[in-house]
Amino acid sequence: MGQVIAVANQKGGVGKTTTAVNLAAGLAVAGKEVLLIDFDPQANASSSLNARSESAPPQNHYLVAPGSDNRCQPTATPRLSILAGSPALQAVGRILAAAPDKDFRLKRALAAYRDRFDYILIDCPPSMSLFTSNALVAADKVLVPLQCEYFAMEGLAQMVAVVKSVKKGPNAILEICGIVLTMFDAVIDVNRDVVDEVRRHFGAQVFDTVIVRDPALTEAASHAQTIFQYAPASRAAFAYATLTREVLSGTR
């Protein structure tokens, strides 16, 4: 049965979607069958893989709406599929808010996918929205990207508290898969200080891999490619390949 990992952080601009896309691609390159779910109304993960759908009707949106088609799209990376998002998801959220089972729609829908994929990654919106709560209820683990800036650490503390709350409530098996430090630049003192402080406070929960700040990541997304397609010899590609090996090892 496939493992479901929510890639989540309440703070935006921390490399969440970049990590979801490139970790999903890394797992696929490693030979795993992977499904990426774009659960953010901004649909940046879909754009990054050239799969965004502007025309999806809100009442029939994937996964959370009864009667939705739920068809996976293949991507240019073998073994990587995506359930694409669109801005229409905002309207779905308003409809979903009135449903008595509003927090469990994604969990039930994913039952049809767990046997088809080794890993299911959910790119969550940068907020504690109904979509994020659905993802946390559905997930086995949470991977938290954290930008190497002090203000980003406030969001990390909030995210850890949310995970603990969900674990005590609707999803007792939920665990933090790991915290991945992103946008690291070794020449910036505060970046190094944040790495040291996060490792001191969270210890083994922090991945050994640090994702470096690399313009190739932004360029890859603008070309609707993963880092492994766009710049396979880049520092960022090496970092995401290393992160992939850590996730596959399952030691955290």
Summarize the structure.
By secondary structure, this protein is an alpha/beta fold.
Description:
There is one protein chain. With 252 residues, the chain is α/β, with parallel strands linked by helices. The chain contains 10 helices and 8 strands. It has helices at residues 16-29, 44-48, 89-96, 105-110, 130-138, 150-168, 189-202, 215-222, 227-230, 235-249, and strands at 3-7, 34-38, 73-74, 80-83, 119-123, 141-147, 175-184, 206-212. Strands 3-4-2-5-1-6-7-8 form an 8-stranded mixed sheet, with helices on both faces. β3 and β4 form a beta hairpin. α1 (16-29) crosses α10. It starts with a strand and ends with a helix.
Content-based structural category:
alpha/beta
Total of helices: 10
CATH class: Alpha Beta
Task: Look at the structure and give the mean pLDDT.
Answer: 89
CATH homologous superfamily descriptor = P-loop containing nucleotide triphosphate hydrolases
Run of helices and strands: EHEHEEHHEHEHEHEHHH
Strand arrangement, major sheet: 3-4-2-5-1-6-7-8
> Per DSSP, what share of the residues sits in E-state strands of 2 or more residues?
15-25%
State the low-pLDDT regions, or none: 55-60
Provide the CATH topology. Answer: Rossmann fold
Largest sheet: 8 strands, mixed
Would you count the extended β strands for me? Answer: 8
Named CATH architecture: 3-Layer(aba) Sandwich
Shape: globular
Radius of gyration: 17 Å
Kindly report how far apart the N and C termini lie.
19 Å
Q: How helical, in percent, are the residues? A: 40-55%
Number of domains: 1
